[in-house]
Amino acid sequence: MPNALLQRIADFITHAPAQDADAVFESLALQLFAKQYALVPPYRRLCDANGVTPETVRRWQDIPAVPAAAFKAFDLSCVPLDMAAAVFHSSGTTGAAASRHYFDTEGLSLYETSLRVGFREALPECPPKLWALMPDPAAAPNSSLSHMLGALGAERFCWDADAALAGALTELTEPVMLFGTAFAFVQLFDGTSKNWRLPEGSVVIETGGFKGRSREVPRDELYGLFEARLGVPLAQCHSEYGMSEMASQFYGHGPNPEKRGPHWVRTCTIDAETGEDSLPGTPGLLRHYDLANWNSVLALQTQDSGTLTPAGFILHGRAPDAEVRGCSLTVEELWTSRSAS
User: Which residues lie closer than 8 Å to 47 by C-beta, 6 or more apart?
Assistant: First the structure.
């Protein structure tokens, strides 16, 4: 029998209510917090140490957020690890510890529902032909991005085969959506002097990662290359922002750097010194509340800096050595609570 709360969240994702969406979100968030408090021991210890329980939380904003780095040190999972249908790892420096995000069958199904609905709502005019500048999911089973692109129906995965991709782009006769990391596009452009003019209606979606193995390309320069080398107008060049610790994604439209999330996610910015909400119009550390994070924790404290806008946020990049000094929920305290138990 399907979990009743899971079904209500899935219904909220697929059918945004015309009225009282904030109230519905808050109700679902509080119920999901109660579930995760009960089933994720490191998270429960963290909350208890700070006097926060489902009985004391009244607003979604008061649900304790876990630092993204905690996914590297702890198994933040509501289900036994041997029940995981998928485990997604963070990308990063070779040799560095990777985050691990566990999904059981139900959680993976909700994740796939959210990514499809979120993509369709964010970019409804994209052509159906999708080529991914990423490894195939079978070759990269721990990549959430490869899995996402597979779930979106990518018909071709192009990775470490730039010569073949260059030839295939030349032969295109119908619009295509090219979806991949910034580095993958830079590698394609650096490997040949060839320019293309993709069929009208083609779209480019980059996922960030502007520091490549060979050189760093500023965002404005990369978007200029999309237009000059691929023949895709800037208005058709978009961005996606996501992370392995989070089930939902944000999208930017054209050259506008603003990122917008789906209706089942709420974002605020936190002052790194005080742990309180940032002043309006000022940068802070992004904190996301994602109802699609069924199997882990819905409240995630990132180390990414951003400024809120009426429709989303402007992403400024990673805050170096960011630490939420005013927030009592830290990786160090998680570690201490585990050691003491």
Answer: 37, 53, 64
